[in-house]
TrEMBL record:
TPR repeats: 146-179, 248-281
Keyword Hydrolase part of the UniProt annotation: no
Database matches in SUPFAM superfamilies: TPR-like, UDP-Glycosyltransferase/glycogen phosphorylase
Domain O-GlcNAc transferase C-terminal: 357-511, 525-708
Protein name (record): protein O-GlcNAc transferase
Keyword match Kinase: no
Organism (species): Thalassospira indica
Pathway(s) of this molecule: Protein modification; protein glycosylation
Family named by the database record: Belongs to the glycosyltransferase 41 family. O-GlcNAc transferase subfamily.
InterPro entries: OGT/SEC/SPY_C, TPR-like_helical_dom_sf, TPR_2, TPR_rpt
Alphabetical list of Gene3D superfamilies matching this protein: 3.40.50.11380, Glycogen Phosphorylase B, Tetratricopeptide repeat domain
Amino acid sequence: MFGAIWGGMAKLKVDQAMKRAKAHMRKGEMAEARDLYEAILADFPKNERVKTALAELSGPVKVAAPAKVAASGAAEPPAEVFAKLSQAYQAGRLQDVHAMTGQLLGQYGNSGKLWNFRAAVSSNLNLLSDAEQALRNVVRLQPDMVAAKSNLGVILERLGKLDEAEECYRAVIARTPEFAEAHNNLGNILKSAGKLAEAQACYLNAIARKADYVDAHYNLANTLRERDLLEDAKQRYFKTLKLQPKLAEAWYGLGQTMAALKSLPEAVKAYQRALAVKPGYVPAMVEQLREQSHLCDWRACDLFAQHAAQLGITGDAALPFPLLPFEDNPAHQLARSRNFAKSLLPPAAPVSTIKPTSPEGRKIRLGYFSADFHDHATMFLMAGILRHHDRSKFEIFVFSYGKKKDGAQRDQVLDNVDQFFDVRDMSDGDLITLARAQNLDIAIDLKGYTRDSRLEPFAARLAPLQISYLGYPGTLGCDFIDYIVADPVVIPPEQRAGYHEKIIYLPGCYQPNDNTREISTKPMTRADLGLPEDGFVFCCLNNNYKIMPTEFAIWMRVMKKVEGSVLWLWCNHDIAKDNLRAAAEKHGISGDRLIFAGYMPQSEHLARLRHADLFIDTFHVNAHTTASDALWAGLPVVTLAGKQFAARVAASLLSAVGLPELITDTPEAYEELILKLAQNPDMLAELRTKLAANRQTKPLFDTEGYTRGFEKGLECAFAQRQAGEAFSDIAVNA
């Protein structure tokens, strides 16, 4: 009995190894296949199957020379030739098969079957032009073979010949409407062109003809998500995963859908499932970290620490933005951005793609690109620039690819630009055509790697000069972005090496502000806001994802020493609130001493900030717009100046408003200063008085002066481009 069981187990082990080895060979991974065969022979040295497979893997292909064509003219090689071709192909010896078919086609050039073999091996070797020509011959010789026409479409698609690929798929569908793969592939073409509704119809057609077609279900789910049909997308991902539970990409897509539906715990679970079936799957890991940070689930810090040295730096690219809160490391941010740009964005068109023209006698044509031309933090900051641009020198174009959201900020944008283009439904190609038709001199990206970004058109060159500004606090690592706008505080000399772009250094703060922002006069008390009438109110209304355990521990230690104090946080998710309260309890602070604020209209938000005593900042990603909000409302901000751009923004703001004494350099100094101010009301009152005065006189809130400096930086950069000079850092004088 035991011998029979043991023999069965040995056979199973050999079979599994053989299957894995053949899978490696199909991918061209010969060394891995050889290692597997040798390992199994070490355990089972007499196994003839493995010996034969290893010998075939190592030896050259040997096929008898084909007999000369008979007088009648043989159209096909002998059956044994195809048998040996198949054997070599299955063994993964693709180069040998490619060479053999080349020799055989010299004699059997009218063999559609041989040309099809040639196409398959060329495709696997990524010799796409060779595969295209082979398939064209198959189609010519065997016009009824619709699969070949469909495969030709696939190769044309890989070659970027999308119009020709579309023609192939449509021809297949016209001839054989039941060919599900052609419907699916046509959907892919239409989806890439931004024709989402048409793509959706194609995927439904494919599924109608092949109900268990996993690719079509998955592609349909992605399309529904992109169309913001989120409930439908969720159900379609469920259907896909029922058919293929180990499809990590579908778990990832489900996670994105649940996040968009604000079901963050469910999103985290989906990403964890993706990682369970595909360990090391970088996109899922990044999104899991993102959503856990939004939930203040600091187990994410341990996950990040395990992978920090490699995540997005070596191997697969990682979206950089969600990782900013987890570490303060400009070198890592640069490496991640470069890897992402190189791996996942189109190659950069040469700078010379669009020749600059002299602006003499005309205005410089300036284009802003964003998804946020509505009531959004970026527009609260930028409204003043748009209002104060020197229209005798600049012509302003806006390209909006976000959802249409009417409101006061949208109205301000429309009132203060020359041309407004809603390009949300445009393909990248159409957007490029439209933007170039405006003859822009400078194109400015306002999104970077944040949500809803759209950098792909910039890779093709929209203007002779391209700039990253305001929306993303760090380097993009892209060859097609020429400059980043900064200042000497956010990018000090010792951190210059962490930035791929050349830098336009503005004289004050890189961040604009609008000094006409209204602060509501609506009656509002602490009690209305859920705050105690007495007691010190520490405030941090940053997004939850910015809060990390290090600063939170400091806040708790300070609160222990300031009796009756509370911590006022912004939060719109119950699980995040529970996690923060639980973290406070672990530090010995009652969870009831954490007060949570929700959304308010901008003017009322500014007014409520006046009811706090001190704004205490987060570390790796500071308060940005929120710090400007606090200072504009008259609330002092204490920050720790870190290393990376995102960790130095509040320091830049405080420098520009004349309050450098609120900038600290170490966690210990940060903690000490917060406690000192909380225990010395006179010192804090003096700071408030100083801020109130500086608010009117210092550069931070001088909107018109800022705009002139910003324009000067743009003019200097464009002058370099116009003169054909190499780009270099620019320091704008005050």
